[in-house]
User: Fold this.
Amino acid sequence: MSRRALIASLLAPVLAVAPVAAGCGGPAGPSPSATADGAPAGSPSGVPVAPPAGVVEIGVTVSGGKVDPRPSVHKIHTGRTVRLTVTDDRDDEVHVHGYDLRLEVRHGKPATLEFKADQPGRFEVETHDSGLQLLQLEVS
Amino acid sequence: MTTYAAPPPVLAHGIGGRQDLPIPLGFLLVGAGLAVLVSFVALGVAWRSSRFRADAGRAIPRPAQRLVDHRLTRALLRLAGLLAAAATFYAAAAGPAGANNPAPWTIYVLFWVGLIPLSLLFGPVWKLFNPLRTIHSGIASLSGGAPLYRLPERVGYWPAAAGLFAFAWLELVAPDNDEGGTLIAWFAVYSTIMIVCAALFGAAWLDRGDAFEVYSGLIGRLAPIGRRGDGRLAFRNPFDGLAGTPERPGLVAVVCVLLGSTAYDGFSRSPVWVNLQQSGPLPRGLVGTLGLAGFVLFVALTYWAATSRTGPAALAHSLIPIAVGYLIAHYFSLLLFGGQQAAILWSDPLGTNANLFGTRLLTVDYGILSLTAIAAIRAGAVVAGHICGVFAGHDRAVALLPRGRAFAGQFPLLALMVGYTVGGLTLLFSS
Assistant:
């Protein structure tokens, strides 16, 4: 066991006060409503739905560790709805960074995630297990 | 077709989940224009004999200094550093996986990025908190032993340059670098090396060899307060502080690692580079390592070529503001937003649904600064760093070079700085 881990376990009882010393007194009040309308609007499973007007459709396929189409930057206007469909040749989990959305993908089956792009910034979309970047969303 | 509902927001976080938007083209053009203009003003009309003095400054009142230097103050700061490190590594060991754990946010955001504003304001602050220094002095007082060897002068800052490169590699290249196990392994190796070397060479090793003390110390040269040669703390012109940067071997290497790795961080997010890493013939980690090393070497070679007349070390301090400008441009929004994430996660550091500070259910507010303000701060930091670097370099050049040759002599460095600044702005614009 490393010296640090040893010290850490010895000092475990002070954990309750330690975070104060860790300097997390920074930004005190992040707004709790920040992602209130960022929750995805799911479509009932198995029923094909025509995309509503204004929905940005993005489709990505992963096979043999290759991403098709290759990762690129998708520019999205703030407030638009994004519908992301991922097909993977292995079970994995897709993660939309920043929005903190996850999508379970089963071998060979297209999986879809729909969400409102209401936070501006650049966000990477990655697979969790294989660690591949699928695309980047540029919301502005 | 299957649709999954999103999990509650506490389940998944990506370290640095949000990245900055590219700066607008206008910011790039105005910034580059300003950089060129100021450079020629510096060359043409600025002062002709050196005016920055390392020992300048107005001493702070004695009672204030007594308080700052008091043994109790020092002991409290050391205790805070020790507790923070213990809490962070305990959370890394026992808390949730990956970016759901406060430890990676504390290390990459609060510690690494947070040290920039702290050092810019107060000087070499990490020295005061550094738990390795506390452990070293504990061991030294227990064993009562003096250091076994004198640290040779030629070692200089080279160990710190190597340490900073290793940390940049951890942050930008290493796989699973947000996992507690990875962080504990890296810091266990690093701390062991530091403690052993400090036992051999004494606390002087930590002054020059500890990557984070050197990082905080060099940024702290720009602080409006510093210690004069007579030991007094003094308010001073940051340019005077900068002029007092010790010209040790390896100083150039430290600055090149900071500049090169920050530039690589911006570049490595571009889809072209991502594609090369994911689909190229070489393993991902190797491509990343080569890319990082390539950026650092590029900075080193261009700097070395531009300073052949004065010697690289004499002008290295003038790159410090440029490196700080790069660091602010790339990382200040990470401190703004990642700092919120750290505050949220410390409410539940072990993943037990605790809510120690009542922040567990909050989410990061990305709207606390407008997009235009963020872009302006990023471009402004690069240009301001450039301007400070130009004047610091000019002042040293007129001190070192004979009067007739001072202007021709500083031209290569000026051209290089313009190149770094336009290159840095272009990275902010295009990636």
About this structure: Chain B touches chain A through 70 residues (CB under 8 Å). The radius of gyration of chain B is 22 Å. Chain B has a mean pLDDT of 89.
